[in-house]
Design a protein that fits this description.
Oligomer: single chain
CATH topology: Rossmann fold
CATH superfamily: Class I glutamine amidotransferase (GATase) domain
Structural class: alpha/beta
Largest sheet: 9 strands, mixed
CATH class: Alpha Beta
Helix content: 25-40%
Number of domains: 1
Radius of gyration: 17 Å
Order of helices and strands: EEEHEHEHEHEHEHEEEEEH
Pathway: Amine and polyamine degradation; putrescine degradation; 4-aminobutanoate from putrescine: step 4/4
Catalytic activity: 4-(gamma-L-glutamylamino)butanoate + H2O = 4-aminobutanoate + L-glutamate
Number of strands: 13
Bound molecules: ligand LF53FM6H
InterPro entries: Class_I_gatase-like, Peptidase_C26, PuuD-like
Number of helices: 7
Function: Involved in the breakdown of putrescine via hydrolysis of the gamma-glutamyl linkage of gamma-glutamyl-gamma-aminobutyrate.
Enzyme class: hydrolase
Distance between the termini: 17 Å
C-alpha cells in the first residue's frame, strides 16, 4: 500500500459546556485529504505538553487553520485587545513555536487566515486588530446574517505578484477570494515575500523567502469547496507535493 504523507493540523482549544475540547473545522481536514492527497492527523493545542521535536518527526507537513479567535497582541507588541475579544492562548502557545521549528527543520507549512496571521507574527510581523477601522482599508469581515455559501463565496479580487510562487502555481495575475477576517497584516514579518494583495493594499498571501521547503500562507479560505476552485486546487496541490517530497526524505 502506498502510504500518504502525514499532515498535522493544530486544533483550537475551546470550552464546550463545562469541558475544554480540541477542535478542527472539518473543511480543513477534507481539504488536506482530498486536495493535498495526504493523511490528516489532528494535533492538540496543549503548548509544551507534547514535544515539538516528536511532532516534527511524525509529520510530513503542517496546516495552521483559521479560527474565530485572535492571536494575543502581546505576541507582536500590540495594544491590548478590545474587551470581549476571543483569544486562544493554548493555541498560540502551540502554533507559534511549532511554526518556527517547522520552518527551521524544513517541514512544509501552509497557513490559512489565523494561521497566516500566526506565521506573520512568528517572523516578527504585526497585525491590525480591526482592519476595517484603518484609514483606506476595506472591511474584510463576513456578514453574520449571510449564508455560509455567501460568507465563503468570492468577496474581493487579489492581485497576484508576478514571478511569485502563487503565480507559478496558478498561472494568472488575478483571482477572486473570500474574506472572513477582522485582523490583517500591519507590519510584514522579516524574510517574507508578498505573493498577493487586496485592492486596498492589504497583504493577502506571502511566502517565506529562501525557505528550505514549502512555507506559504493566505488570508482567505482556500479549503472552502477547494475542488471547484482552481486557485485552491493549485495551493493544495503544491502543498501536497511538498509533503510527499518530505515523506520521501524521511
Ligand atoms: N480571528 C482572525 C482570523 C479569522 C479566521 O480565521 N476566520 C475563519 C473562522 C472560521 C473558519 O475556520 O473558517 C481574524 O478575525 O482576523
Amino acid at each position: 500500500m502506498q502510504r500518504k504523507p502525514v499532515v498535522g493540523i493544530c486544533a483550537d482549544r475551546k470550552v464546550l459546556g463545562k469541558h475544554p475540547f480540541h477542535a478542527i473545522g472539518e473543511k480543513y481536514i477534507t481539504a488536506v485529504i482530498e486536495g493535498a492527497h495526504a493523511f490528516a492527523v489532528l494535533l492538540p493545542s496543549l503548548g509544551d505538553a507534547q514535544s515539538i521535536e516528536q511532532t516534527l518527526a511524525m509529520v510530513d507537513g503542517l496546516l495552521f487553520t483559521g479560527s474565530p479567535s485572535n492571536v494575543e497582541p502581546h505576541h507582536y507588541a500590540g495594544e491590548p485587545s478590545a474587551p470581549g475579544t476571543l483569544h486562544d492562548p493554548h493555541r498560540d502557545a502551540t502554533t507559534l513555536p511549532l511554526i518556527r521549528a517547522a520552518f527551521e527543520a524544513g517541514v512544509p507549512v501552509l497557513g490559512i487566515c489565523r494561521g497566516f496571521q500566526e506565521m506573520n507574527v512568528v517572523f516578527g510581523g504585526s497585525l491590525y486588530q480591526k482592519v476595517h477601522e484603518q484609514p483606506g482599508r476595506m472591511d474584510h469581515r463576513e456578514r453574520d446574517e449571510d449564508t455560509l455559501d455567501v460568507q465563503y463565496g468570492p468577496a474581493h479580487p487579489i492581485r497576484i505578484a508576478p514571478g511569485g510562487q502563487l503565480h507559478r502555481w496558478f498561472g494568472q495575475d488575478e483571482a477572486m477570494v473570500n474574506s472572513i477576517h477582522s485582523q490583517g497584516v500591519d507590519r510584514l514579518g522579516e524574510g517574507l515575500t508578498v505573493e498577493a494583495t487586496a485592492p486596498d493594499g492589504l497583504v493577502e498571501a506571502f511566502s517565506v523567502t529562501n525557505a528550505r521547503s514549502f512555507a506559504f500562507a493566505v488570508q482567505w479560505h482556500p479549503e472552502w469547496k477547494h475542488a471547484s476552485n482552481p486557485l485552491s486546487t493549485a495551493i493544495f496541490s503544491a502543498f501536497g507535493e511538498a509533503c510527499r517530497q518530505r515523506q520521501q526524505q524521511r
